[in-house]
């Protein structure tokens, strides 16, 4: 059932009616969380920026077909996950190629303005930075569906029910995926947290 309290769905319905300002508002709200999700999935910043732009392009192209049957964020991250899976499959088939896009199609989109992901940390935060890097490595090593479930769980906008809809699986299976993923991370990170050494 549609959530009539979802302000983002209301914005998307305005986009459907041709409201470009509403689209710019959605891009402004979601470009950073979307980029973070894609970057942690693909582990390639440049390609993640391209793919995030492609997600918004798909949203804009699909505006006339949009139906308010779920939260906007659920629909958006479903598109993002599908494009990530397509990119992972493409990499497997053609590992040397980069994403090819028709940049002329992007002229109608607001210019992307992503924050710089490179955090310059003072010396007393070096250990925290190293740990964050190891956590990202451990997440990347998870099976795709567990990794995606955990990454989506980081998005404050998304409930377990919405994550289940994006993953196209049951609520209980989604909770199990998140639990197993967290347990795997704990086991993987335990030796590093205890000793400071990382075995990979």
Summary keywords:
0% strand; 2 domains; globular; 200 residues; mainly alpha; Rna Polymerase Sigma Factor, Chain: A
Protein architecture, described:
It is a single chain. This protein has 200 residues and is an all-alpha fold. The protein folds into 2 domains: 1-95, RNA polymerase sigma factor, region 2, helix turn helix motif (Rna Polymerase Sigma Factor, Chain: A); 123-200, Orthogonal Bundle (Arc Repressor Mutant, subunit A), CATH 1.10.10. 65% of the residues lie in helices and 0% in strands. It is built from 8 helices and no strands. The chain is globular, with a radius of gyration of 18 Å.
The mean pLDDT is 82
CATH topology of the largest domain: Rna Polymerase Sigma Factor, Chain: A
Protein structure class:
mainly alpha
> Would you identify the CATH H-level superfamily of the largest domain?
RNA polymerase sigma factor, region 2, helix turn helix motif
Range of strand content: under 5%
Low-confidence segments, given as residue ranges, are 98-124
* Integer tally of domains: 2
Q: What's the CATH first level of the largest domain?
A: Mainly Alpha
Number of strands: 0
CATH architecture tag of the largest domain:
Orthogonal Bundle
Concise structural overview:
This protein has helices at residues 7-16, 20-42, 45-61, 72-93, 126-140, 144-153, 160-167, 171-195. The protein is an all-alpha fold and 200 residues long. The chain folds into two domains: 1-95, RNA polymerase sigma factor, region 2, helix turn helix motif (Rna Polymerase Sigma Factor, Chain: A, Orthogonal Bundle), CATH 1.10.1740; 123-200, Orthogonal Bundle (Arc Repressor Mutant, subunit A).
């Amino acid at each position: 059932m549609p959530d009539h309290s979802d302000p983002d769905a209301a914005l998307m319905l305005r986009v459907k009616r041709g409201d470009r300002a509403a689209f710019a508002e959605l891009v402004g709200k979601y470009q950073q969380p979307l980029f973070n999700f894609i970057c942690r999935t693909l582990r390639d910043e440049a390609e993640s920026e391209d793919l995030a732009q492609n997600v918004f392009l798909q949203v804009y192209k699909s505006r006339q077909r949009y139906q308010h049957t779920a939260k906007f964020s659920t629909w958006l991250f479903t598109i993002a996950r599908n494009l990530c899976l397509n990119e992972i499959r493409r990499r497997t088939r053609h590992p040397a190629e980069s994403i090819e896009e028709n940049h002329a199609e992007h002229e109608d989109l607001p210019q992307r303005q992503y924050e710089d992901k490179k955090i310059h940390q003072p010396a007393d935060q070096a250990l925290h930075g190293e740990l964050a890097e190891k956590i990202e490595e451990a997440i990347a090593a998870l099976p795709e569906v567990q990794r995606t479930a955990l990454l989506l769980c980081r998005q404050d906008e998304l409930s377990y029910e919405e994550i289940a809809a994006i993953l196209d699986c049951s609520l209980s299976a989604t909770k199990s995926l998140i639990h197993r993923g967290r347990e795997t991370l704990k086991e993987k990170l335990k030796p590093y947290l205890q000793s400071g050494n990382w075995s990979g």
